[in-house]
Amino acid sequence: MSVSTLPRRRRLLTGVATLAVSAVVLTGCTSNEPEPTGDTGGGTENAASSNDDTGETVTIGFSGPAADHGWLAAINSSAQAEAEKYEDIDFQTAEGTNDPSAQIAQVETFINNKVDAIVLLPTDGAALTDVAIKAMDAGIPVINVDREFSSPFAARTTILGDNYGMGVSAGTYACQLIEDNDIADPVIAEIAGIDSLPLTQDRSQGFKDALEACDQEVDNRVAAEFTVESGNEAAANLLQAEDKIDIIWNHDDDQGVGVKAAFDDAGRDEFFFIGGAGSKNAMQWIKDGEMEATVLYPPTQAADGIRLARLIAQDKGMSDLVQVEVPKRIVLNAPVVNADNVDQYFDLGFES
Question: Among 104, 196, 269, 285, which is least packed by CB within 10 angstroms?
Fold first, then answer.
């Protein structure tokens, strides 16, 4: 059964909460002309003007990963683009790196430069914890993105994607496909990322738990390494092992380029193909009828981190909340994107 000929009776199962949710929340108001503060509390006043109004200039240091992966490249570029939207942000960015020692040195430079806030996607959360605490102790709020530190004292605010939620969204959507298409005894396959990573384990656990809710399980699971080459190899092995598959969930749309190539090389399209992360490639395949859906893991996390850093450094809060301070922890949604709503999300996709 070709993906393009399958019935389009779908529901968006995770709610259509867009990745711009934080963008909506963060455009409210509390303080128009905040008094500068050296503490890391953030947000003590309410007022009536927009938080997007130009305020006192704040210096924000950003350290992110080496851009050796489409999603990671989007993290860096979205942070830069967001900072450029604000006249009151002096943006200092360090060169992307996968070396914890180099990133520690970058954060220490930010501390020595007495920046007003630091947005940090750590190469290794545990390795960067001590220097993040050092920044916090110096009165510089740290906004932790995607990979958590090992101490609650290392960050003023943490903003995360939802890895477990990705799995739940993919599994719940798979259950709905089974029901909508009256698939008896479905064969469900999973192409994971790097198995040793907690994020991969969380995604797989969420998928498993969601499938259990409709009395299903994964019949064949293989793991790749978040690269095109590894995705191609893992998918080829999977297809050789299974003559017929009904649903495949691939964790990562970057490795999905290789996965899709393996499908095309084998001439196999009898299954519903679900991706993960939300690349433009995947969204175009959805538009072209070559892929069923993808589950988002927003590459806007660092951009949201920049907005939060600005609010905290200017002693503002989030006006759409009753609470006057920026929250301590924010977890972004993991919605399903399919043919029904792909146009809504397409511009948020990243280039693989």
Answer: 196
CB atoms within 10 A of CB 296: 30
Tell me how far apart the alpha carbons of residues 35 and 54 are, in angstroms, rounded to a whole number: 14
Exposed e or buried b per residue across 62-101, where buried means at least 16 C-beta atoms within 10 angstroms of its C-beta: bbbbeeebbbbbbbbbbbeebbeebeebebbbbebbeebe
Q: Is residue 344 part of a domain?
A: no
Helices (H) and strands (E) in the chain, counts: 11, 12
Query: Which position has the token pair 């399919």?
Result: 338
Distance CA 70, CA 81 (A): 16
- Give 56-115 pLDDT, tens digit per residue: 999 999 999 898 888 999 999 999 999 999 999 999 999 999 999 999 999 999 999 999
Whether 281 and 192 share a structural domain:
yes
Q: Which of these, 231, 304, 283, 263, lies nearest to 62 by C-alpha position?
A: 304
> 133 and 213 share a domain?
no
pTM, two decimals, is 0.80
Cα 296 → chain centroid? 7
What is the spatial distance between Cα 127 and Cα 156, in angstroms, rounded to a whole number? 18
CATH number at residue 187: 3.40.50.2300
Are 142 and 63 in a shared domain?
yes
Query: E strands along the chain, which residues?
Result: 58-63, 89-93, 117-120, 142-145, 157-160, 188-192, 220-223, 247-250, 272-277, 293-296, 329-331, 336-338
